[in-house]
Structure prediction request, 329 residues.
Amino acid sequence: MTEIFDTVLSLFSDFADPRKRVFVGYLALSLVIAVAWLIFMRRNSLRRSLGRVFDRRVFWSPSARADYKIYIINRLITLFISPVLLTQLGIATAIYFFLHGQEIFPARAFSGTNTALVVGLFSLTMFLADDLTKYLMHRWMHKWPWLWSIHKVHHSAETLTPVTVYRVHPLEGVIYGFRAALTQGAVIGVFFFVFGDAVDLYTVLGVNALVFAFHVTGSNLRHSHIDIRYWPWLEHILISPCQHQLHHSIAQEHYDKNFGAALAVWDWLFGSLHLSENDRELKFGLLPGDASATNLPDIYLRPFADMYRIFRRRVKKLRGWLTQNAPSN
Ligand SMILES: [Zn+2]
Ligand SMILES: [Zn+2]
Prediction:
């Protein structure tokens, strides 16, 4: 009995974990930011603002209800899958020993560096490298048909709530898990090789201070109906909630824009930046017939069917090419 209770409790542990975006503390702060935005920027009364934030049509929409079910299913899957995933430590160790094996750059060449500087540099590099590889992975998810068939699940949401961050196909979870392990493992390996034991993270509640800053400033509002915008200059540096909402928009001019996670600089640098627009009503989701927003078997199984279809198309193309270019004798 206690075992079942523990399992149920661990399904919801993300809400008590400051390393997760949906940690209750971050959700509470997001609520404060959303209400303050509606009162001071949109000139609503407190009552109206609260009514707008807790809009039943958003939180109880068929799409949102599907999100809640997906949350439970994905958490259950994660409980079984995560122990077999590639670990950050494994990658870090492999890179560390690989670097030791080369003779160009000596180990611990900068081990005498001021500790505060090393910790600051390490925390910043971890944050930047993680954010950059998230950007690249996300961009590829939209570019490559195989990956898009998986990522489409996230975009099938027709209303956005903080729980929508969990609306991802388990395969996307695995891909992002590998990405995180590779990126963070590489940074850890290189830093320990160059700086020695002084390497550490600046943390708040056990989280990289920069990630913490991202969450306390309303990262949860990216998946919400509160269209908080920043000044245009700031939207070149940080992705505002409205900019991520725009990434979910069905309008053609918003396709392939704002892939960034926390920073907008990657989008700016690689030409995919789109600033938020004044009072623009956005419609979220996919084109009709593209993927279901609510049907769970469709959400979980269609990506496999899509991938099989892409595979068959490729094989057919290859066959056609081979027949055309067959050596004649
Ligand atoms: Zn996307
Ligand atoms: Zn999203």
User: Anything to note?
Assistant: The first strand starts at residue 203 and ends at 204. The pocket of zinc ion (ligand 1) is lined by residues 138, 142, 151, 155, 247 (CB under 6 Å). The chain has one domain: 2-323.
